[in-house]
Design brief:
about 130 residues; alpha/beta; Rossmann fold; 5 helices; about 30% helix; about 25% strand; binds cytidine-5'-triphosphate
Length: about 130
């Protein structure tokens, strides 16, 4: 029996890579269902990030993964509490580059930060192609 019923995680997932895949698989191993909230293009530009792949296509890729139950859209920093509550999530997970940043969600569900896969990121891929 899996420990949790429904996990939730957030990310941009631009230029989808194995670090993303491994994180999602590890979260899915902890819970019966996995909801993934993908940053919209508008939210990314608010954060000063520009995606290569548009939101609809990033969402389509995540949605098609066997380990993912459902994809939602992220439009602002504030929606996490209501997402967790409205979707009845009992686990919130992010990679450990975010350690401590979302501990305020501990009032609503368990919060864990999993180790990132070393030596790969969207930023590295972009830089590699550029140089
Ligand atoms: N992630 C991971 N291992 C990696 C890269 C990302 O576990 N090597 C995790 C992040 O910690 C996050 C999720 O994947 O929980 C989505 O991360 P995202 O920011 O979309 O990917 P990055 O490759 O980190 O992108 P960027 O370089 O633009 O920050």
């Amino acid at each position: 029996m899996k420990k949790y019923k429904r996990a939730i995680t957030y990310g941009t997932f631009d230029l989808f890579h194995v670090g993303h895949l491994r994180l999602l698989k590890r979260i899915a191993a902890l819970a019966e269902e996995l909801y993934v909230v993908v940053s919209s293009d508008e939210f990314n530009s608010l954060k000063g990030k520009k995606c290569v792949i548009p939101f609809e296509e990033r969402a389509e890729i995540i949605e098609s993964l066997a380990c993912v139950t459902k994809v939602l859209r992220e439009d602002n920093w504030e929606q996490k509490i209501s997402d967790v509550k409205n979707n009845h999530c009992d686990l919130f997970v992010m990679g450990d580059d975010w350690t401590g940043k979302f501990d305020f969600l501990k009032d609503y569900c368990d919060v864990i930060y999993l180790p990132r896969t070393p030596r790969i990121s969207t930023t590295d891929i972009k830089n590699y192609i550029k140089n």
